[in-house]
Specification:
Keywords: Membrane, Transmembrane, Transmembrane helix. The protein has helices at 2-11, 20-28, 66-90, 94-126. It is mainly α.
Length: 137
Amino acid sequence: MLAQDATRVHRGDAPEDRPIWPALRRGWRRRCPKCGTGPLLKGYLKVRDHCPVCREAYFHHRADDGPAYLTILIVGHLAAPGLLVAYTAWQPDPMVLFTTFAIGTVALSLYLLPRLKGALVAFQWARHMHGFEEGGR
């Protein structure tokens, strides 16, 4: 019996199947990945200890620096080619180019960071990672 459970966990079959895409969408909207109605974040980036609606526990999540790395990755891959295209196509004054891209990258980073954190916590919940096992302990 124990070998069957180990095989099931190794194959990725969880005892309760949690669909990943609805959980990621709920996390992106900064909502509880389980019920979709309760708020996931208490402030800008602070994850609640539990959902106020369905009481799912979040205190054991391990988002750490993942959302920041993903934000840098996405913003960098959008800003660098955009900077090259803007400079070669229009050749604006360097101060105008710097100001425009500085404001754009900061705004995009501030927009993405809490959404990526919610999606990462939701991904951990959907995959039963870091204490998100059955029962929401």
